Amino acid sequence: MIYFNLMFWKNPSKKYIEKQILKLKNIHASHEAREKTMKKLLNIGTIESFLALLERFKIVADSTYWDEIEKLWIIKEIILKKDTAKKALKYFISKENNISLPIVALEKLCSADELLSFLKNVIISKDPNSHHDINCKQEVIKALHFYHNLDLSIISPFLYDYSDDIKCLVIDIIFSGGDIKYLLLAIQMIEDDNLSPRVLNFLALKIIEKNMQIPLHTTLAKMISNSYTLKSNYLVPK
Q1: Is the Cβ–Cβ distance between 208 and 235 less than 8 Å?
Q2: ∠ at Cα 17 (49, 25), nearest 5°?
Q3: pLDDT value of residue 93
């Protein structure tokens, strides 16, 4: 019986793991109930159980106090599991949206080069036209920018992302630097009638803030032509 129990905890069934996930993601459950489930999954110690544990990041519990405590507990405990945890974290970050804290955990298990290489590969694998992984794209771009290791050629396709949030994030990052190639790439968006007023106005403010000249023969998008005009190739409010 002891041998059977040991084998079960090393290789729990898929059905058992799925049952624990349901308990873990019950936002109305008590902290004690979720904590018990988290400890079970942590102690199993497999990639599958760690992936199940990371599902906790996909929900917000009724109590914001316990929500934060539980998520920080997972980060503190999972990094002690080293290689198995690293594999689970990498898989979760590459596939899911709620990844800001998992990135923090992965940072503690990787060298700077390994972390940055992984994050670059994640963003390269993402489709700007996809609406399924908006938060993932956003968090990875922010992380790369935070670590001062952002290749603008990697994120420039996201100037035309499905999400306005990501468009504005990439515009902001490009304008925070001085690479003229990508500044001009962003500036030319001011002509695009397919962009939302929010993105166009955000871009206009960035152009004015950086005092950038607009290329000759530029025609402002209709959405902002009532608010801005060009004077000596500079964008100015009307």
Answers
A1: yes
A2: 90
A3: 98
